[in-house]
Amino acid sequence: MAHVVLKDLIKNYGSFNAVKSVSLTVNDGEFVALVGPSGCGKTTTLNLVAGLTSVTSGDILIGDQVVNDLDPKDRDIAMVFQNYALYPQKSVYKNLAFPLQMRKLPKDEIDRKVKEAARVLDMTQLLERKPRELSGGQQQRVALGRALVRDPAVFLMDEPLSNLDAKLRVQMRSEIKRFHQDLKATIIYVTHDQLEAVTMADRMAVMNGGYLQQYDTPAQVFANPVNMFVASFVGSPAMSLVPLQASTSNGSTFLTSAEGWQLELSPKNARKVAKASSNKVVLGARHSTIRLHKNAEPGCVPAKAYTVEPTGDITFVQAFLSGAIVNISVPPSVPVSPDEPVWLEFDQERLHLFDGETEMALRSE
Ligand SMILES: Nc1ncnc2c1ncn2[C@@H]1O[C@H](COP(=O)(O)OP(=O)(O)OP(=O)(O)O)[C@@H](O)[C@H]1O
Ligand SMILES: [Mg+2]
Predict the structure, then answer these.
(1) I need a labelling partner for 202 at 20 to 30 A (CA). Which of 106, 251, 258, 347 fits?
(2) Ligand 1 centroid to 136 CA: how many Å?
(3) Mutation choice for ligand 1 from 11, 38, 44, 156, CB with most ligand atoms inside 8 A
(4) What atom in ligand 1 is closest to the CA of residue 41?
(5) What is the DSSP string of 305-351?
């Protein structure tokens, strides 16, 4: 296995900038997810690493070698795509063996590698079947096996699970994670599904509009999103964002709504707000950090329930607060009806505050 370095990577298609100066290092044996909304440049970035697209500027290193000018076949990578494109007439065994035969490996070595891949992916009993005799998940495992037998320095995966149904996707998610742990493989994994990235990756690279927004562990990205885009992209239901006005009086800092209510901030949150470039501040809160009250209480702000979605062990309530939609979770035992007035209490320790002008997170230090 090997590490991968992207240095100031830029890709233009004509005058369109698809990838805008992306720099990141994937350590040897690390599982990194490239995640972001459709069109943000994930596949383009992966294809640059694979050599399927040429670099406009910047460098790509695999191991210590700059690979910008190497053909895909000389980059020591293996790709797994959404569309696994197995040979329909060949058995699983032959599908796995084929890339090795192309490389003219000795027959007994091919046999050993195929059987080892089948063992790792738990499909020894499927080797004689044809692809049409396999489930979608089994076919995806064969596609993974075909990458595995090549014993590459880096695995590149582009939305490998998006053709599978929801249940199978969850199962294959665990299997790929297991595959990574067992092999200590270096994996760059593209997905638009933040939950896949959060659950599988050691680190996630969140992209938007061709820019790398944040590159960190899922826990860090979740706890300390750098800006409003990352805050609302990672986590489900999304973090609620409420634009408000900051003001200070008698040594206290308040966030004021156009509707007239005020929320007094803790000293730490007041220090964050003092760093804002104007009095426009956006309050951010995850559903689990907001308490819903049925009556007005000190420190609470007034809202109005909009939708109520029971999911079994947790009920999600959406409420209007100062013109914004806020997601809150409550135990199923709390009865809430649409259009009912409710009061919200924010956990100030876990509140997020953003600069209303730059959309960047405000920090207290
Ligand atoms: N060959 C091309 N020529 C021109 N523009 C392209 C080309 N390939 C991609 N693009 C554009 O570059 C941007 C990034 O595309 P890319 O395929 O990398 O997105 P993505 O993040 O993988 O999206 P998705 O989640 O939909 O797969 C898009 O706006 C796309 O239209
Ligand atoms: Mg893509």
Answers:
(1) 347
(2) 26
(3) 44
(4) 18
(5) EEEEEE-SS-EEEEEEETTEEEEEEE-TTS---TT-EEEEEE-GGG-
Reported in sequence order, the residue ranges of the chain that DSSP labels E, i.e. its strands, are 4-13, 16-26, 31-35, 57-62, 65-66, 77-81, 154-158, 187-191, 203-208, 211-216, 240-249, 252-256, 262-264, 280-285, 290-293, 301-310, 315-321, 324-330, 341-346, 352-355
Q: What is the pLDDT of residues 287-334, one digit of tens each?
A: 999 999 999 999 999 999 999 999 999 999 999 999 999 999 999 999
Does 41 contact ligand 1 (Cβ within 6 A)? yes
Out of 3.30.70.1170, 2.40.50.140, 1.10.8.420, 1.10.1200.10, which CATH number does the structure's domain 237-355 have? 2.40.50.140
Interval between CA 83 and ligand 2 midpoint (Å) = 12
Give the tens place of pLDDT for each residue, 204-262: 999 999 999 999 999 999 999 999 999 999 999 999 999 999 999 999 999 999 999 99
Stretch 271-288: mean pLDDT, rounded? 97
Atom of ligand 1 at shortest distance to CA of 159?
A: 27
Domains 4-232 and 237-355 share a fold: no
Provide the pLDDT confidence category of residue 70 given band limits of 50, 70 and 90: very high
Percent of the chain with pLDDT over 70: 100
Question: Domain residue spans in the chain?
Answer: 4-232, 237-355
Report the residue among 11, 16, 35 best suited for mutation to probe ligand 1: largest number of ligand atoms under 8 A from its CB.
Answer: 16
Confidence of residue 82 (pLDDT cuts 50, 70, 90): confident
Q: How far apart are CA 325 and CA 327, in angstroms?
A: 7
Q: What is the pLDDT of residue 103?
A: 87
Which residues, other chains included, contact 195 with Cβ-Cβ below 8 Å and sequence gap of 6+?
236
- At 183, is the pLDDT very low, low, confident or very high (cuts 50, 70, 90)? confident
Among the bound ligands, the one closest to the CA of 193? 1
